[in-house]
Amino acid sequence: MTNSTGPVVAVVVPLDEQTNDDKFDLTSHKTARRNVKLIVVFAVIVTITVIFAVVLGLTIRDKGEDEKHPPVYPIITNDSYRLPTDVTPINYNITLQVFLGVSVAFTEDQPTFHFNGSVEITFRCETSTAFLLLHQHMGKLQVAQVSDVRLADAAAAGTESSVVRVVDRQLFPVHDMIGFYLDDYLVPGHEYTFTLEFWSTPQTTPSLSGLYPSSYVDSNGTERYIAVTQMAATLAREVFPCWDESHFRATFQLTVVHDENTIALSNTEIALQRRHSSGWLSTTFMPTVKMSTYLVAVVVCNFNYIEEVSLHGSVVSCSVYNFT
Question: pTM of the prediction?
């Protein structure tokens, strides 16, 4: 038996004759890889763009916050007779050191009467402003120093945001006014404080206004000097910087520093006395009621007094002062 085997035929299909399905699979694979690359590149570009935009935005915002627009200040003319009502005084804490001297008027060989002191003013902002205008008599008072304006709120005290800087000052002699320019606006409804130091200028002739000297001859024929005040109607500005118009009512707390051989009197009772080693005596008075500046009174003298107390169920003290 003869084994016969049929011929084996190998069919080779050329590449260009592969099926359409094979071609589609290869092309899809290449396209997918290219798309992935494009997506990655796009994602990187978007990420870089977003980061750049955020950084640029923060930089612009910080720059804008740092570069605040400067405040706009009012223009004071010779017709500006009245003080603005942007702020309202609440309390004056005044310290006066009174030098009686040995003469009423200034002479070259004798020291004259003069005084110096400070006033801490607490006020409330009514309308947003960056300018404070108050009274100061040009011929009798000089402001030496002024502090920055600070929030009166104890919780905000000491923080940087609580301080508004005084950047400049200007005198307006026609109306006895002094203005202070601030580096930022005050906020309505908030209370602020600032302090001014001042001194009186020597007077060549006696005056009967503000805080002025007077004299009398005692029973021994010796001339004695005292200091008294006349604040009405608009003379408080000769003693301390203030809102010296009657509708600006506030409370006042005075401390008078005077020679230990004299006494000090004011509107209210004495709250505290402290003796200094240098021969001075500090007399601090109780706060006043809310009142106008022209009602403030100060006396430095060496008067004696008599005192009586009511015996009709109520304790009412009355002291009468007189020189001896």
Answer: 0.74
